[in-house]
Amino acid sequence: CRLSAGRAGGVYTWEEVQSHSSRNDQWLVIDRKVYNVTKWAKRHPGGFRVINHYAGEDATEAFTAFHPDLKFVQKFLKPLLIGELAATEPSQDRNKNAAVIQDFHTLRAQAESDGLFRAQPLFFCLHLGHILLLEALAWLIIWLWGTSWTLTFLISIILATAQTQAGWLQHDFGHLSVFKKSSWNHILHKFVIGHLKGASANWWNHRHFQHHAKPNIFSKDPDVNMLHIFVLGDTQPVEYGIKKIKYLPYHHQHQYFLLVGPPLLIPVYFHIQIIRTMISRHDWVDLAWSMSYYLRYLCCYVPLYGLFGSVALISFVRFLESHWFVWVTQMNHLPMDIDHEKHHDWLTMQLQATCNIEKSVFNDWFSGHLNFQIEHHLFPTMPRHNYHLVAPLVHALCEKHGIPYQVKTMWQGIVDVIRSLKNSGDLWLDAYLHK
Asked: SMART domains under this entry (predicted)?
């Protein structure tokens, strides 16, 4: 079969596909067809790393989850086709559960036939409207009544709310979950994340899709790359401890997390990373969108606060927004299983890395419906107002196959973030001292 590798008529075993998983030699399987994506990976709109993470694997479930228009993206696959799996090979690779994969495929088909992937335009119009209203209200309050400390604190909360809610809205467009046409989603994504938030759509895409493709998996999910500041899960702390790695006193990480996590993620780490990424990639379109935000902000607030006051105000707004963002995003993932690649099927992998926060009108709004994190991870292109409709079906499927489906109160979610950090720190200390 090696002789036919250059044609679309090759027949391959899983073992052979798995041997093509290096950075310069990447094959993957979609619906039993084998593709050589080595040269195309750098042109992938979702970034080359998300392709790297599936090199040598079956990518059918991820491919289906990320692309709302499968017929359209099939055009890009055709030239990459080199053959198919041998008839004697199973459709799934490694230790993936065929029954779970089939049942999840059936569930997805049911969700599609029930119209759960169709967005309600009014929902997203109203959401955008309330963000713009909050922005206008903050400026009007200062323009009408002055820049007292009390009013400045009040508008900081209003602006932080607008920024956080814009963060949830850009997330909707980034996942192509609003419009049928991907191009419309991309344009609105650039507007919301760029002009309303001052960030970069491409930076977000390339980072966030990796997280969705391989959640809580070391060296694949950037959200668990803690730059040696924290140790996570049950495996990494022991590995660090045995190797006597001690960049920081990790047994105190549940305490210093409160000083360096929520306060600094957006105003410092993300801010530096976004600017560096746009400049290093020569992403002048995203840079222009981002600069349009800061130009608008400075035009509105410099006449009221002066330059220094305006910079101080936006820094405080980012500080508040960062707390909101970190707690909402971390309570769904940080207390869950964090480990090296285990090659599970889509449903099992997402459920091990994800939990939900219980539904309420406030929780839905506060978290941008990411309290339904399980459903969002299973169906990233589904409009968020439909998560609660598919949730009972997902729960029933998990019960059928004995896969834990966790739902917590918001308070329990927050407590579990600290508890899991303390537990990981204790595991590190024990391994550091005794192993």
From this structure: Cyt-b5
Phi, psi for 41 (deg, rounded to 5): -55, -40
- Which contacts qualify for 245-253: CB closer than 8 Å, 24 or more apart? 246/432, 250/424, 250/425, 250/428, 250/429, 251/425, 251/426, 251/428, 251/429, 252/425, 253/229, 253/421, 253/422, 253/424, 253/425
In a domain, 386, yes or no: no
Q: Is the pTM of this model over 0.90?
A: yes
Q: Which domain holds residue 273?
A: 129-210+260-326
The residue among 94, 116, 151 that closes a domain is 94
Determine the Cα–Cα distance for residues 165 and 181; give it in Å rounded to an integer: 23
| 47-105 pLDDT per residue, tens | 899 999 999 999 999 999 999 988 889 889 999 999 999 999 999 998 799 999 999 99
Tally of structural domains, the chain: 2
Spatial CB neighbours of 403, under 8 Å, sequence gap ≥ 6: 100, 347, 348, 351, 397
**Based on the domain organization, do 78 and 137 belong to the same domain?**
no
- The Cα 297–Cα 288 span in angstroms is 14
Residues 137, 79 share a domain = no
DSSP 69-97: -HHHHHHHHGGGEEEEE-TTS-SS-TT--
Beta-carbon neighbour count of residue 157 at 10 Å? 14
